[in-house]
Amino acid sequence: DRSEEEMELPEGATVKTILQRLEEEWPEIAEFYEVMQMSVNWEYATENTELVEGDEVALIPPVTGGCDV
Predict the structure, then answer these.
(1) Can you spell out the DSSP letters for 6-58?
(2) How far is CA 48 from its chain centroid?
């Protein structure tokens, strides 16, 4: 269980590049793509968001809960 992972990526890499790398190591992650969100530097992003050196990418699992007010 890792909370952080550093990756060397080619120039022009996108969030999708990261997802593909993760899928190589954990194929089962692909089943969550439709329900998770992604962010780059604390801003929601799509898989086509281009990355630059030093960017922080987060995979955000689905969240449920809360209360009625």
Answers:
(1) -----TT-BHHHHHHHHHHH-GGGGGGTTT-EEEETTEEE-TT-B--TT--EE
(2) 11
User: What's at 12, amino acid-wise?
Assistant: G
For 40, list phi and psi in degrees, rounded to 5.
-125, 120
The pTM of the full predicted model, rounded to 2 decimals, is 0.80
Write down the domain spans for the chain. Answer: 15-60
Helix (H, G, I), strand (E, B) or coil at 67: coil
Tokens of 1: 């269980």
Question: Could you report the per-residue pLDDT of 33-52, keeping only the tens digit for each?
Answer: 889 999 999 999 999 999 99
Evaluated on CA atoms 2, 6, 60, 20, the torsion sign reads negative
